[in-house]
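sry for the spam today, last one i promise. struct tokens for design, 268 residues
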């Protein structure tokens, strides 16, 4: 339906409490990418916050497929949000609320050549988020504040640091290459289990490269050979600067180039 015709009640718990989960699925040439992995994560998010899943897997697939087919662009990002529904404002779960589903497809911007050639700049920032970062909830205020700090420092992403370890970006997962080995934080409660993260680990296996899922000490960021950030919308981006430090040789690294090339091949 046209955006102007969409209506959500101001009493929707997604609006009042941020009582909602979401998912973002890229589609290329009108085909969803890693769809089953995204739907599995959406189902898990709903289960973790005890919102009843309003659709079967097939119904989700149909609805997302329709959005992709009907959108103006062939490459889109499908955003899906499910809230606990409309009820008088009160903290306990309402008895008979029906989950609200909102989905939209927006054009997926391609990544500028300049970004791929020069890499991006990062900052580090204290992680002030809650202890269930593994659930994809819409309450993203801490992430938004971190991203805004990055932009104000002329960087494009903020790396969240907690108890001396670099966990992930405000909207991306983090990879650090050190002595030829790729490191990324394990899938625990402190990070979002990124679909792109898992996809990149698969690519590394296919490339025969060693990786370790382990906590990354903050000071490794300043002595890394390569740093990458991954997300569904921005794929795998090389970082060439972090805080005031140059990463590696100051240009996107060799391993990143191999991973990026294979990523593009699989995508195609
Ligand atoms: C906090 C956070 N970490 C990681 C990611 C990357 O996840 P994915 O690769 O599934 O897009 C996102 C994506 O929005 C995110 O918000």
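last one done:
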């Amino acid at each position: 339906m046209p955006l102007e015709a969409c209506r959500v009640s101001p009493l929707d718990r997604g609006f009042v409490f941020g009582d909602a989960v979401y998912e973002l699925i890229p589609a290329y040439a009108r085909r969803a990418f890693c769809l089953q992995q995204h739907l599995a994560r959406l189902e898990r998010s709903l289960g973790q916050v005890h919102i009843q899943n309003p659709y079967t897997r097939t119904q989700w697939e149909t609805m997302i497929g329709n959005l992709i087919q009907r959108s103006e662009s062939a490459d889109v990002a499908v955003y899906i949000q499910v809230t606990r529904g409309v009820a008088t404002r009160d903290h306990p779960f309402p008895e008979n609320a029906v989950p609200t589903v909102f989905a939209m497809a927006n054009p997926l911007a391609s990544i500028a050549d300049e970004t791929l050639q020069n890499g991006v700049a990062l900052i580090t920032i204290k992680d002030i988020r809650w202890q269930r970062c593994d659930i994809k909830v819409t309450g993203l205020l801490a992430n938004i504040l971190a991203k805004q700090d990055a932009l104000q420092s002329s960087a494009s992403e903020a790396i969240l640091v907690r108890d001396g370890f670099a966990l992930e970006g405000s909207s991306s997962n983090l990879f650090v290459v050190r002595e030829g080995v790729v490191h990324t934080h394990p899938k625990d409660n402190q990070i979002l289990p990124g679909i792109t993260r898992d996809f990149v680990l698969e690519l590394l296996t296919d490339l025969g490269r060693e990786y370790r899922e382990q906590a990354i000490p903050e000071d490794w960021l300043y002595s890394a050979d390569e740093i990458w950030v991954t997300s569904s919308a921005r794929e795998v981006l090389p970082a060439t600067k972090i805080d005031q430090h140059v990463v590696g040789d100051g240009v996107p690294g060799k391993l990143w180039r191999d991973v990026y090339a294979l990523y593009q091949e699989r995508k195609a």
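The first helix runs from residue 13 to 17. ok im logging off now
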